[in-house]
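Researcher: Next entry in the queue.
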Amino acid sequence: MDKKILGAIGAAIAIAMAVLILLPNTPSNLSPEPVSVRHNEKLGIIINPPSKEVTLDQLKKVYFEASLTGIGRNNLYLFWNHIEPQEDQYNWKDTDIMMSLNKQNGLAVTLYFSVVNGRITGPYPDWMGEPGLDPVLEKKLVKTLDAVLSRYGIIDYVIIGGELDSYFNDANGDVEQYNEFFNNVYAELKQKHPNVQFGNAFSLHNIVNKNLDHYVSDVDAGDFVAFTYLPVDRLNDISRTPEDAKKDLQKMLELVPDKKIGVFEISWSTSDFVNGSEQAQAKFIAESYDFYRENASKFEFFTWYRQYDRPEGTCGIEQNFPSPTITIAPGSGLGGNEYVKERLSKYTCNAGLIKTDNTQKSGWAEIKKQIQLSENS
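Model: Structure for this entry, 377 residues:
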């Protein structure tokens, strides 16, 4: 998988999950016994191990641990070049493992299928070349997504375009072309899978930081509108208090008055390198779930990013970043692109609720408390 596509939290976790290395189990490792837990399908935590090298039993334990919080949802990130390396020949090995664990733990799944991912498209399999958003790609996408949805009945939401605000604003994506592409794909898939909801995702913090509200209304298509949210400024430093961040969330309701909303990824890093802390993370968890309960009828899903930290140095962003609208003054010591990439890397690696050494942050206890308080929402 081409790691150069990384440029967003969603992309980073997708890479991490797709290249998990399963080690042999030791004889003493036993699968957790099933426990009856009431799951709220609207609420999710993105489930990940602290390292990409895990045994299957360790992975089972991570899923089991997450399911005990009362969540009823997880995200699945699929890249086309990974799932269909050869035309009509699907690689189900990795996704079968993840999806079986989701099913065993009573979790529904929100699928992100990377066609548009912020400033880039794909990545596509080599056999496809570099297609445009045209009828040929529409046909291929419908065929592949039909195969995925037919195999995994627990997928109930699908996101096709991610961080569309960056795609239109920074990559010169054509809104009219995208709308036609999405609507054609939507019509075909909805006929085949009427119970699955299809939509697109935007970066709320990017919209707030750059005044890009209009892109949300420009893409008036699909069953729902999803958002990702980091409490950061353009340089990826945490620039809000938890209370201020809650006010940012209100923007979603203003942007989407007539459709249901999905929170695809919401997070708060504990890295002091980007002005984060465990205390602030726990506080924002309380604030964000309070916001969710106040507006639960508007939400299709609300998913926290994420269960575990990642080891330092494994969250690097290799694409050209940040936006060309950011100008780093000469002599400022900010280091241009590298400055911004380093902050996103630090943010991402420390955005979990549990440290890589299995030490629980205060946010882990807080999110379990908030999920229980939201049981009937």
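Model: Residues 3-373 form a domain with the TIM Barrel fold (CATH 3.20.20.80).
Researcher: Noted, moving on.
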